[in-house]
Write a structure and sequence with these properties.
With 185 residues, the protein is of the alpha+beta class. It has a single domain, classed as Cytolysin/lectin (Mutm (Fpg) Protein, Chain: A, domain 2, Sandwich), CATH 2.60.270.20. Helices cover 16% and strands 45% of the residues. The strands form 2 sheets. The protein has a 6-stranded mixed β-sheet with strand order 3-5-1-11-10-9.
């Protein structure tokens, strides 16, 4: 199975991620989020995506929980409240399908430490591809990749022609995470 970690985001991916980070920032300010990651995701595929699973290394979702679905061409948000020691560290997986109707999955993981430092920065990790790839997830492997991840990244699975891009930034007392789930065609 071929896949590629892209060298850089396309202009469209960067624009989408920036818009989602801004949406997360506005939501965080409005609800006065503290020690949290405010996550905003947009579905740029041609079908609705459904929530499959989540994993929490530190913290938990608050409020209405994870969005059960993300309709096509729309965005959804949630707040992941961090704990005082390690901040907000979690992941979500959404299922949908690619342009050929094949079942696919998109994974977004984030790390928003309580006290961001040069040695403990905000990080994101993303993955996508055939749905079967996400049937059994090694969360230890995802965490190891997240622990060395950058603040912005993107990934394309060439077999399924799916793509995902994400970014995280500190916004005072919380982190804003933006992600775009899409197709590479």
């Amino acid at each position: 199975m071929a896949s590629t970690q892209a060298m850089g985001m396309t202009e469209q991916q960067k624009k989408s991620v920036d818009e989602m980070v801004e949406k997360a920032t506005n939501m965080g300010v409005n609800v006065q989020a503290q020690n949290s990651a405010v996550v905003s995701m947009i579905n740029q595929t041609n079908v609705s995506m459904t929530f499959n699973e989540n994993h929490n290394w530190s913290g938990s979702v608050v409020g209405t929980g994870y969005p059960k679905s993300i309709p096509t061409k729309q965005s959804r948000q949630f707040i992941h409240q961090g704990d005082a020691k390690d901040g907000s560290q979690g992941a979500v997986v959404y299922y949908g399908s690619n342009a050929n109707g094949e079942p696919c999955g998109w994974l977004l993981a984030w790390c928003a430490p309580t006290n961001v430092t040069p040695t403990k920065p905000n990080r994101v990790y993303v993955d996508c591809g055939a749905q079967s790839k996400f049937d059994t997830i090694s969360w230890d492997t995802i965490k190891a990749k997240l622990d060395v991840g950058p603040a912005t990244t993107n990934f394309t699975d060439v077999d399924t022609e799916t793509t995902i891009a994400a970014g995280v930034t500190s916004t005072g007392s919380f982190a804003s995470v933006g992600a775009a789930f899409g197709l590479s065609t």
